[in-house]
Amino acid sequence: MTRKTVDCRKYPSAMNCSLSISGEEEEVVRAAAEHAVSVHEHTDSPELREQIRASLDDEKATV
């Protein structure tokens, strides 16, 4: 299974967040949603999680 990644640097914010999260898709969606709620003051919802899921990239292999 391809690991997925999401990177806050792709989405400018007032706090210039630099967090990057990678792992299996469901892990990343869950962790990114928790981060979005606790740091960026978003409301956790199915819509937020779908936006996160749509923004996932395949992690580049580092061998």
Automatic annotation (TrEMBL):
Residues 38-63 are annotated as: Disordered. It holds the Pfam family DUF1059. InterPro entries: DUF1059. It comes from the Bacteria. This is DUF1059 domain-containing protein. It comes from Streptomyces brevispora.
